[in-house]
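#dry-run=false #mode=assembly
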Amino acid sequence: MRIDMSPTDICGDFKIRPGLFLENGASIVPGGVNFTIHSAGAKSCSLVLYHSHESEPFAVIPFPESYRIGSVFAMIVFDLDYENLEYGFYVDGDYNFFGGDVFDKSKCLLDPYAKLVSGRNIWGEEPNWDNPFQYRSKIILDDFDWEGDVPLKTPHNELIIYEAHVRGFTKNESSGVKYKGTYAGLVEKIPYLKDLGITALELLPIFEFDEFEGAREIDGKKLFNYWGYSTVGFFAPKAGYAASGKYSMQADELKTLVKELHRNGIKVILDVVFNHTAEGNEHGPYISFKGLDNKIYYILTPDGYYYNFSGCGNTLNCNNPVVRNLILDCLRYWVGTYHVDGFRFDLAAILGRNQDGSPMSNPPLLESLAHDPILKDSILIAEAWDAGGLYQVGNFPAYGRWAEWNGRYRDDVRRFLKGDSGLAEAFARRIAGSEDIYDRYWRGDCASVNFITCHDGFTLYDLFAYNDKHNEANGWGGSDGGNDNHSWNCGWEGDFDLPADIKHLRHKMIKNAAAILLTSIGIPMILAGDEFGNTQYGNNNPYCQDNEISWLDWKDFDKNQDLYQFFKKMIAFRKNHPVLMRTSPATPIGYPAISIHGTEAWKFDSSAENRVVGVMFTGKTRDGKDDFIYIGVNAHWQAREVWLPALPQNISWKIAVNTDLGDNSFYDAPITLDTSQKFLIGARSVIICTS
Amino acid sequence: MTVTVERDDDLKIIALDGELQATNADNIRDEVIALIDKKPMIISMEKCVYVSSAGLRALLMIAKTAKSRGVKVIYAAIIEEVEDIFKMTGFIKMLRCVKTIADAEKELRG
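#status=ok
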């Protein structure tokens, strides 16, 4: 029995005592619940208690003056039924908009450290808009039986990332799972992920957000904030993604997903959004930060307006020490409590901006993240740009720790594959690890996350099925979504009345992309569904489409088995060749680890009209033998003859992949080539040879 | 919620009746744990109409305590809504659950 866990005061019907000042948020203590919150500008603060889902609080308990140290308010309230409880805070302070203070004691604020948020428990269920307290902090039982699980130790260079949306992955009827569109539904699909062979699952945002933010109706269809890049609660898993969300059991459900993925050797990476919050600009709602310390949490103009480097209304003031702590606490929480293995940071360039918005050379937040003990083995991936024009691909402050989404990989590979001129050299560099962007000495072999598609843009099928975006369903008259897609429809826009030869070419182009992605140096990332030709019908920005446009259509899995089998075999191929992961520094005598070739071996043609690139990787197999891999890419519309580099005596090239061969593109038993080493690569085709 | 010992011969059948949640979970847990001796146990869930987060933890702690004392515990006759909660949260894999009391008896005597 602790002497600081018994009541000291009475407030109305409640027994209370000063709480735990070094904690954040709410936690269960013997006999009661501790509530801690801080606000530098607050004159006073009250704890507001509600029974679950009720509009009116059953108690408002002001923090006595003696329950405050510095700007921290802490109180233990005894004898609460913590499962039937939601809470928030009234915070009183100055209102001076132009000075950055916008305190409003009439607003009930969400605890920024809330581990559960109630109010949007069932996805898409219309909220009670008359209720002034929309996002409601709840108390969690944080314990969980991990049965020995910890974040996986798989080295970063063995990552093969699969980017998926929790809801979109299984919401379609065709997914065949019981708990569609949820964490539990994902658990049911783990055998599929294991069969495919990916080693990491990257989830689009799963921090609590409001799918009703910006909800609209277009042509009788309800549009939602489907992607969720707009955080309401940084410590709370999205309840609407949990089959058990109606019981507020989302934390257990998500932890079970992580545990089961780990059991199957699959890491979990979360897409996290620290560049802005769901509070928008001066016209947006009060959720939490505005009413706690507006000028601390947001980057404001000198006259109190919100800088908009995120393109979403506000910009989180990431390098303020208080905000920095919040972000660090958050990431540490997700690793320590949910065992996640890493993070992808949305618009991460903002994390390196100063409190006045200018870019910093040594941002304390990024430095702290790079050296944090809990995060030491976590993969940190930056989307190294922001909407304010800061583009840091290649020079994101990395401290030898950060990887980046390689946007240039996406663009150069897309353009070369569709036959653009002047791209041969850039394309060769992208396959070879983009050392022109990421200096290997400083950044290692895992700095480049290679991707050809991601959630933001065309799917891989659509990349070769549409010249133009078709975003009419988004309701913005086609003005939204990127225009620099570098896509090519193979001669037929869309799928209506699709001729068989065009379909055949599209499948070949998809296999070309898969072969290149999975043999490039760096960490490959696959967009979920690309492995079976999932389409978004040409929509390259379906952020609001909670329907068949975004949901994976698993019927395509049956229809496009050739694509799935090819992806699966290419993933296995990558895993079987450590050369592609650069795990061993040793190379065969006389051969460099990486070499670039043209139609003639060892002679690279960097002229604008060259569309034939060969890349050879050498190294050792797992059992120590010399290993040679040659990737030959012909992006020309006619077949081209290439000379393969000569191998040492007694070793011959074997053809392992030829995307010109339709359903037989992957040789389960590679065939030895004759000694002439000459090979005719088909039009728009990729070959892979092994030793 | 009430805890009733329905049978106590070569094995014990303990019935939970009502809702298992934060307000009673600790007490119910302690009450059932106090009934653990050497005999295999069947927890009849037929009349347990709801299990909350705290309730799940109570059931898990009962199972773990029994296991640590070398006693088998099976949860049987779980109503559909509660079984769904077990499945969604993954607790179904951490607890031994069977369809009927007869199934549980068969397994324990097997």
